[in-house]
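Input (structure):
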């Protein structure tokens, strides 16, 4: 165990502190980021810790960097926490053209806006969020470097015996949500073509917090004695602190035409083995339904390793933290990943 990582994480303050500790590579990199750094869609699951990580890195570098977190802030708590950690907040609906026009100028922008769940009930809203908002942001920040979040869902499931989806693979996923994510990428690509805007498209697969994520979902099922569906038998995932750090450093990768990079952990984890490990850690029997099939969402990380390095936080530590968190009834965001979904309907 690395001396900097605790054995267990007991509180949300400790969790946020660990997740927002800047590594030397980020402290060095943040010196090149011009003020203000604008983070769009910062009020969701990743934005608050990403913004705070950037704040701490800039402070550690002695750099007077304004960080402006933009969202509607449906979650008032996220806004409060950002403000209390010296991240400026701006409440704005990024589907509102006039509101987007009023956003502050910036040379560096991180784009986190997205919508996944509820697509089956209101597909039009998902498509609007994942296409119109990118168009408005790409137009507004035509002169900036943009890191835009995408998803590993832009690929169809791939063979669990292959090497994982690569950035050059065809983007032909099932379901409206995933296709709207492909459209999000294409919109950024189109505006990059039009205006020469440098963009990095980050195809993230499963960030791990202790309050949500695939490990949280599996651990919670095991703890509650619910059977684990094995049809999607393998997955890859990454500690959210590492993902946030690599997303900020991806500003250095922004290019015209855009560069797409898969972002996730290096290991392909077996859902069955994860559940058994949680069962052992939490003293629970584990039940399964179904059997592993031949395909899953799995990404090839060759390009990520070459351009951003390897995520440093060991998965075994995250598994142990998650088991303890769930058993101790730590706070849940109540946002299940639905990793077992195979038809693309979210
Ligand atoms: N977390 C993961 O494991 C994961 C995995 C793969 C890909 N991603 C991608 O990474 C990005 C960030 O992930 P996340 O988990 O933080 O997503 P998230 O929880 O959905 O956060 C995105 C935030 O964007 C804001 N937003 C949506 N529509 C908006 C609008 N019209 N105007 C202003 N803000 C708007 C929302 O906050 P407000 O309600 O406050 O506006 C929302 O919470 C997403 O785009 C997602 O596609 C994440």
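Output (sequence):
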């Amino acid at each position: 165990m690395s001396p900097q990582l605790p054995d267990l994480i007991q509180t949300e303050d400790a969790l946020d502190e660990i997740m927002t500790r800047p590594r030397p590579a980020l402290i060095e990199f943040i010196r090149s980021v011009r003020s203000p750094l604008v983070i769009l869609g910062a009020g969701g699951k990743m934005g608050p810790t990403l913004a705070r990580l950037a704040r701490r890195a800039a402070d550690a570098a002695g750099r007077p960097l304004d960080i402006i977190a933009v969202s509607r802030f449906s979650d008032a708590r996220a806004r409060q926490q950002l403000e209390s950690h010296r991240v400026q907040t701006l409440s704005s609906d990024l589907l509102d053209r006039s509101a987007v026009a009023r956003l502050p100028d910036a040379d560096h922008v991180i784009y986190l806006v997205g919508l996944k769940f509820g697509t089956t009930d209101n597909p039009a809203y998902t498509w609007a969020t994942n296409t119109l908002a990118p168009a408005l942001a790409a137009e507004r920040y035509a002169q900036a470097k943009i890191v835009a979040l995408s998803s590993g869902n832009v690929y169809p499931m791939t063979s669990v015996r292959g090497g994982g989806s690569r950035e050059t693979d065809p983007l032909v996923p099932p379901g409206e949500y995933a296709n709207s994510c492909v459209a999000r990428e294409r919109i950024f690509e189109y505006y990059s073509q039009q205006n020469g805007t440098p963009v990095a498209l980050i195809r993230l697969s499963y960030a791990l917090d202790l309050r949500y994520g695939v490990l949280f979902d599996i651990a919670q099922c095991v703890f509650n004695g619910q059977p684990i569906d094995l049809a999607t038998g393998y997955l890859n995932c990454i500690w959210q602190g590492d993902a946030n750090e690599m997303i900020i450093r991806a500003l250095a990768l922004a290019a015209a035409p855009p560069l797409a990079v898969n972002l996730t952990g290096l290991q392909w984890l077996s859902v069955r083995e994860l559940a058994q490990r949680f069962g052992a850690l939490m003293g629970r029997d584990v039940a399964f339904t179904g059997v592993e099939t031949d395909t899953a969402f799995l990404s090839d990380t060759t390009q990520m390793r070459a351009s951003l390095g390897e995520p440093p936080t060991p998965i075994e530590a995250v598994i142990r933290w998650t088991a303890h968190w769930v058993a101790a009834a730590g706070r849940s965001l109540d946002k299940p990943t639905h990793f077992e979904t195979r038809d693309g309907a979210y």
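Notes: DSSP finds twelve helices and 15 strands in the chain. The mean pLDDT is 96.
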